[in-house]
Amino acid sequence: MPEREIAMLDPALATLSRAARSSLLHRMSALTAMKPTPLMARNLFNGRVWFSFLLIGAGPAAIEEMNRSGKRHELIGRIQQGVEMAAQQGCEVVALGAYTSVVTRDGTALHPPPGVHLTTGNSLTVAVGARRILRACQERGIVGESCPALAVIGATGNIGSALIRHLLRGAHPFSRVILVARDRRRLRALADLLAAQYPEISIESSTDVTAVRDAGVIAIAVATNEPLLYPYHLRRGRPTVVADISAPAAVSPAARELVDLHVIPLAGTVVLPGEHDFVMASHIHTGTAFCCAAEAMLLGLAAPSLAESLDLVGPVDPEAVDVLARLADEYGFLSQPDDCDLLAGTPQ
């Protein structure tokens, strides 16, 4: 949400119209040539972690256009500069936030300097998303349904495919899985793989979002500028849970107003214990962080060297998901008794 993020740099900019702020950001992006810029830095958790936030000055629309026009390498170069800048600051773990993971092929297109460990943050995102989905199913009574269906939009993506596997390998209520993605070839390959791994579960696939209409649980993990889920995509008369792990949000405002729909609030964020005044973005709550950033913080708390033994770039590794989930529990990122209350409130 760049037109909101820019107002964080200077509150006076909030008086400008949204269009004016978007135009200003576009001009600033051209002026800075997307060079990495330190946005903020602070000590966290009683000085146990030093956190630095670097900004690559390009909005989602500009990034998508660069991807489509073959200029991805320019953006990868700027992200590489950001990694090297973090290393110069003394950072031992560098997390790829927002679109930087997608652009760099889940971090595999980058070359971290010696002593620096890269992570996409996707492992913690999967762990948190899966936990909140299962908890919401229990709270909404969906586990008691006959044959509830799980639908995943963005199923062939790194987070989407890992989320499916993580949900299905443990105790779960699903007897049917609906895969939705744009690439038919990758979609078919994923469907065949899951059908072989989980023969007791019906696996369906589609390139049409309307295929999720009968699902009781919908997870969305996509990189898009506009909402994908509207009221006509959803079933009526029965409770439906949606976990939106996308940023910006992929659930339309009209869909959020449906009585039977429960959108898991900010499914890709966690509460930072003891850091109630931490502000990372305009559209998440004070005292919380995106899972990508929180994953780097957890590795800093535990030991940056732990990253050497985990696969944290490229396809999400199940072992890394389990380790990050354990660390999140250990350090209170997931065990806060009031995290749901906080996440359900209104972002600052």
Q: Which helices and strands appear, and what pairs or packs with what?
A:
Elements: H1 2-9, H2 18-32, E1 37-44, E2 49-55, H3 60-68, H4 72-88, E3 93-95, H5 100-103, E4 117-119, H6 122-140, E5 149-153, H7 158-169, E6 176-180, H8 184-197, E7 202-206, E8 217-220, E9 240-244, H9 253-256, E10 261-264, E11 269-271, E12 288-290, H10 291-302, H11 318-330, H12 339-343
Parallel strand pairs: 3-4, 5-6, 5-8, 6-7, 8-9, 9-10
Antiparallel strand pairs: 1-2, 11-12
General description of the model:
With 348 residues, the protein is of the alpha/beta class. The chain has a domain at 131-264: NAD(P)-binding Rossmann-like Domain (Rossmann fold). Helices cover 38% and strands 16% of the residues. It is built from twelve helices and twelve strands. It has helices at 2-9, 18-32, 60-68, 72-88, 100-103, 122-140, 158-169, 184-197, 253-256, 291-302, 318-330, 339-343; strands at residues 37-44, 49-55, 93-95, 117-119, 149-153, 176-180, 202-206, 217-220, 240-244, 261-264, 269-271, 288-290. A six-stranded parallel sheet has the order 7-6-5-8-9-10, with helices on one face. It has a two-stranded antiparallel ribbon with strand order 1-2. Strand 9, helix 9 and strand 10 (261-264) form a beta-alpha-beta unit. Helix 6 packs across helix 10. The chain is globular and about 55 Å long. 42% of the residues are buried. Residues 336-348 have low confidence and may be disordered.
